[in-house]
Every structure is written in C-alpha cells, then in structure tokens.
Amino acid sequence: MRKIIGIILLVIIAWGIIISLQNVPFGTSRTEVADHYINKGIEETGAANIVTSVVVNYRSLDTLGEVTVLFLAAIGLGAVLASTIRKKEDRDTEKASLILSTGCKFLFPFILLFGAYIFIHGHLTPGGGFQGGAIIASAFLLMYLGCYKEKRINETGIIISESLGGLVFVVIGLIGLLVGAHYFLNNFMPKGEFNTLLSAGIIPIIYVAIGFKVGSELSKIIDLLMEES
Amino acid sequence: MIFIVSFLVVAMIAAAISAYFLKDLLSAVIASYMVSLIAAVLFYLLQAPDVAIAEASIGAALVTAIFVIAIRRTRRHEE
Asked: Taking the CB of the first residue and of the last residue of chain A, which one, N or C, has fewer CB atoms within 10 A?
C-alpha cells in the first residue's frame, strides 16, 4: 500500500516538473532584472564588478541573511563541541619539522595579505568578503596544520573582529534608513570616481566588514575542530 | 576549449563516482576534493571568477580539511 502511494506521489511530482519545465523558454531571457543589472548597474552603484553590485547593493539584505546563517552554523558547532568531554592531550602528537613549521610561518602573512586584497578590492576585481574571509581562514588552517603546538588564535581578538564586522554591517544599513533614499542598506555615500579603490559608496565598507566576519567565523570553526581532535 | 572542458567534465564525473564507491573514507574525501577543484576550474573557464574563488577556497580547501579532521576523530574505513 505504501509503495503504491509512493509511486502515485512520484508520478504526480514528475508530472508537475514536466509541466512547469515545458513553459520555460530555455536560452531566452524572460526577466528584465538581469538586463537592468548589466546596463544600469555601474551607473547606479559605481562598482566595476557587477557581481559585487548585485550581492552588496541590490541584494544586500540576502547577504546579511547569508552571513547570519554562517554565524549560526559556527555557534551551533561550538555548542555541540563544547558539550563533549575534553581529553587532555591524550595523543602525543609529534612536533612538525623545522622546515615545515618555518615554511608555514613564512607563507602565513602572504596568504593573509591575499585574503585582505580580495575583500578590499571586492568592488573592482572578482572576489569579495566571503572569498577573502575563506582565504584568511585557510591561512589559519595552514598555521594549525604546520605549527599547532606553538601558535593559537587569540580568542578575544576573534570575538571582537567577528562582532565588529556584524555591527558595522547592520549600523551602515540602519544609517541608510535615516539618510538618502530611506530604506535598509541603501547606498547613501558618494559614488566617487569609477574604478578606483575609494568608490562605490558603502560597498567596500560592507565587504571589509563581511571579510572580517566570515574570516573570524571560519577560523573559529577550524580552531574548535582542531582543539577537539 | 571544448576538448579541455569535456575532459574536465569526464574527470569530474569519474571522481564523483569513485567518491561514492571508495571504502577508504580518506580516499573518498580526496576524490570529492577533486570534484570541487575541477568545478572551480570549470567556473573559471565559464567566466565566473567570483564563484571560482569561492569554490576553490571553501569547497576545495576548508571542506576537505574539515572532513579530514572529522575522519581523524571517527573511523577511517567504511564497513
């Protein structure tokens, strides 16, 4: 009986998918919003990278939600791992060789610099807050793999940078309610000269905030996992 | 161009299938890492560099590291 109901449900769902896909004109554009972004995006936001102008200007509320999801994931992982009993260094892990640990220490600032470059130039070149934050977290991962016994993340520093990132994002959005076009996260600041570092209004500020927030969240996730293992 | 893309797609499918069938979970993680890495290259070739950077840094680097740490905490071989 259950199998028959399952097959009937499957047929109904397949029929619905086929019916709805038949009406999709593949290869042609039916929405005008994409054309609007491509044609008017540079003029309205001042960002040279159209992807960034969509992510941080037209759809910045969704980006705030995305950052919140990542934050909740980090909190959830911390809550789950904090409840497990902590064993005190039961594995006598061997210290990494001098070449490995020195190489990691040498590469670490360059990877940090690259991550910072990616999120500061988010409105000019490909990349942005999420990508830069992930690259910064991978720098911390390298440090944890190479010289785990010596170097650890400063706990208060990571909390401060994470909270400051979120705070800057929300406060800039709330300032947008007060001045300019009066809606949440509007681009109230001057656009500046096109294709220079200080252009595109609030976009670079928000991307730097997202970069700090995502970088500290992902680094904290790695820190929690490495601590327990 | 079309030759490179089709080669990458075939390699990606092969890596995905081997990630499903491998019994050694560490090898399976490396195979899924291959899928992410090839996806990043394909995103770049399809002129989506933003997504390519995100896929390479999150999908290839961080997720693989998290899986390897998780395997270290649990069992390495599937029964």
From this structure: N
